[in-house]
Amino acid sequence: xxxxxxxxxxxxxxxxxxxxxxxxxxxxxxxxxxxxxxxxxxxxxxxxxxxxxxxxxxxxxxxxxxxxxxxxxxxxxxxxxxxxxxxxxxxxxxxxxxxxxxxxxxxxxxxxxxxxxxxxxxxxxxxxxxxxxxxxxxxxxxxxxxxxxxxxxxxxxxxxxxxxxxxxxxxxxxxxxxxxxxxxxxxxxxxxxxxxxxxxxxxxxxxxxxxxxxxxxxxxxxxxxxxxxxxxxxxxxxxxxxxxxxxxxxxxxxxxxxxxxxxxxxxxxxxxxxxxxxxxxxxxxxxxxxxxxxxxxxxxxxxxxxxxxxxxxxxxxxxxxxxx
Amino acid sequence: xxxxxxxxxxxxxxxxxxxxxxxxxxxxxxxxxxxxxxxxxxxxxxxxxxxxxxxxxxxxxxxxxxxxxxxxxxxxxxxxxxxxxxxxxxxxxxxxxxxxxxxxxxxxxxxxxxxxxxxxxxxxxxxxxxxxxxxxxxxxxxxxxxxxxxxxxxxxxxxxxxxxxxxxxxxxxxxxxxxxxxxxxxxxxxxxxxxxxxxxxxxxxxxxxxxxxxxxxxxxxxxxxxxxxxxxxxxxxxxxxxxxxxxxxxxxxxxxxxxxxxxxxxxxxxxxxxxxxxxxxxxxxxxxxxxxxxxxxxxxxxxxxxxxxxxxxxxxxxxxxxxx
Lengths: 324, 324
Known about the structure:
The structure is a homodimer.
Chain A: E1 2-6, H1 11-23, E2 25-26, E3 29-30, E4 33-38, E5 51-56, H2 64-69, E6 75-78, H3 84-89, H4 91-112, E7 117-123, H5 146-163, E8 168-174, E9 176-177, H6 190-200, E10 205-207, E11 214-218, H7 220-232, H8 235-238, E12 243-245, E13 249-252, H9 253-264, H10 266-269, E14 272-274, H11 278-285, H12 294-298, H13 307-318
Helix pairs in contact in A: 1-7, 4-5, 6-9, 9-13
């Protein structure tokens, strides 16, 4: 089996590639070839004995998408895209990369006249406030960012290309990924991870919002699980509504902190410092708090059972089991 | 005031132009200039004393959209598009005209750096079965045609361009327009109009579905009213959710026929012949039966009160008050 991963150099892309290499197969077939694409050069995955093609290229540039699918990969994980903040500050780049890049990939597949499985990472940014207490699967998409708009458009394209028989698409709306490893970044959502990650490694973390703020989270490990599971779903099982809200843990910031205290103790939880930030508060107020994700759960997608598990997963996967 | 109408040679485009000319103004300002665009040459509207520019051109072709907005029309009615059937049979043309054409128009407006009002005709084809008994305003869009997909994508673009301040958009999802004047066409929805229009002019009409089939209708006159009213709405009144399901009359085919009998008598209603068609039955089964359209009603959009009114409107507007 030949697998193509776009956005392969990103956090999810690297973890997905590592998981595919570790599993050695997908849907019961062994993986003998990997094509990894990103705008920055992806690294050669360690421990993979099959053929690997690495490409530093932009799918929205002429001819790149056609080249990427010329060898007809069986499964395509399409993760590439510019993030929310960048799509908002650079309007043209957001549309070029997130919309035109995806459309170029879908068109290249149509032109290649074969029918791969395409798993696309959408986002809960497709939703826009006001929301009900918990968002049902049939709630409309009224994004309040260009990023969310681009994701919602790509979902519609993926569904139409699937319906027309050009590919077998699955769009998965990822909740906020937490605990995000690495350095603190400037994303408005960064603190959700920061208040767990930083204290666990001995550093102070700033909390810009009230303890009562509620949000939905899934670990990087759960997100990789969603991708792998999405690849196993048949069109018969999915039906025409191929874009799915993924499950996650809905909890308040206060509950996140209490979970941290239970898992890592008072000393670690004490490293969080309240530093209210009105801008962040305003941005976060427009985000979804909770999603039913009923269909995804029924289709077998699994998130953690409690936020404590998300913290334990981070300690295992990123800290070698050690707390500072 | 300068008004641009795209798709100006179509049925709605011609009726809208005639109404604008008759009114002489829009939103309390007099109209001194009209630009009419369509792929087939639009006719010069009768009785208009202002400047008229007629253009037979395709918005998706290079430079056309920029030319259309170069003189900065204050209000743009964007009606242009290929219809449902053609978008399904010609995949590339549907995306080029309905998606790329609209995007070219929005991009030309952004490049012209001014902020016109843009009224876009979407369609209830943005919805896809299964539906609840009546579709609420917050129901998701899962179109089951490429046409519906293209309309849903354009709605998302219009909302994002509005949010970013490039224009003031309003998207209106038109129900089935009934009674559609002119010759019978091959559209699967054609019979909804045919069973009224043909008997009223002395001809037999074929009914391919059961009397129990329910659907939502608005007259051409009501549709023009929606467009004019949409142009009067301020961004403050609309809020960020600028795409609206329009109201209509939800009734069964049997109720349509009874209304025809009430308005025009047994002899006219007797010109409908049942001729079941499995293909049409299957297509129609996937269509929305009823929409709440709560927000549109609250915002002042008005449809007919009963199907009888739709028939009377047709007799007045198209038959000079006479029944055959």
